[in-house]
């Protein structure tokens, strides 16, 4: 019975060590690279042109036309 507990403890320690090493690798070794990727992904500028055109009332008279302001 004690042998099973000892083997289970070794397996648990081994799995915990694998997770700890992977966490160290991702944060310390690859941390800078993933930070650059996250910064590029954080903000993306998409320019969408504003819809322009002439707005008419129900009689067909121009209410708003497209012209530059001075």
What does this structure look like?
This protein has helices at about 1-30, 30-40, and strands spanning about 55, 60-65. The protein has 2 helices and 2 strands, in the order ααββ. The model has no long low-confidence stretch (mean pLDDT about 90). The N and C termini lie far apart (about 90 Å). It is mainly alpha-helical and about 70 residues long. The chain is rod-shaped, with a radius of gyration of 32 Å. It has a two-stranded antiparallel sheet. A hairpin with a 5-residue loop joins strand 1 and strand 2 (about 60-65). The protein has one domain (about 1-65).
Please report the distance between the alpha carbons of the first and last residues. 90 Å
Low-confidence stretches: none
Largest beta sheet, briefly? 2 strands, antiparallel
Cross-sheet strand order for the largest sheet: 1-2
Oligomer designation:
single chain
**Beta-strand percent range:** 5-15%
SSE-based structural type: mainly alpha
- Secondary-structure element pattern, one letter each: HHEE
Characterize the overall form. Answer: rod-shaped
Helix content: 55-70%
Mean pLDDT: 89
Radius of gyration: 32 Å
- Helix count, per DSSP? 2
Count of DSSP strands: 2
Total domain modules:
1
List the topology elements.
Blueprint: H1 2-29, H2 31-42, E1 55-56, E2 62-64
Keywords for this entry:
70 residues, mainly alpha, two-stranded antiparallel ribbon, 2 helices, 57% helix
